[in-house]
Amino acid sequence: MEWANPEYKAEDVNKAGKALSSMVFPVNTVDGLEALSVINNWRAAHAYPLNTFQITLRHRARKIERKVIIAQRAKRLDSIHRKLVSKTTMRMTQMQDIAGCRAVFSRIPQV
After folding, report:
1. What would the pLDDT profile of 44-75 be if each residue is shown by its tens digit?
2. What is the DSSP letter of 2?
3. pTM for this one?
């Protein structure tokens, strides 16, 4: 599997986020589709570090509980849109929850 690399400068990603925040979702204009293309590349570029972290988390968590559940996800486009609309000063490149990973243990003390 080949990992995605960021193809756009940070200012282009932020510009696409700003454009998306002023549109109705789902977008169906040329400008909207161009903004989504930039944002999708930004999301995809987080896949490698997310996967690397997930593997590390899985390895460490299994030392605590063999049947721990590990999950990972990239933020959905509709969630990105809602966040950009609700937080008008947010820049796309500063969105801290663009991807996430979690470990679910069976008991609180194991956490």
Report:
1. 999 999 999 999 999 999 999 999 999 999 99
2. P
3. 0.86
Residue with tokens 């989504």: 36
**Cα diameter, the chain:** 52
The phi and psi torsions of 41 (rounded to 5 degrees) equal -65, -40
Residue 43 has a pLDDT of: 96
Burial of 105 (0-12, 13-18, 19+ CB in 10 A): middle
**SS3 readout for 58-88:** HHHHHCCCCCCEEEEEECCHHHHHHHHHHCC
Distance CA 2, CA 74 (A): 17
Residue 65 CB burial class (10 angstroms; 0-12, 13-18, ≥19): middle
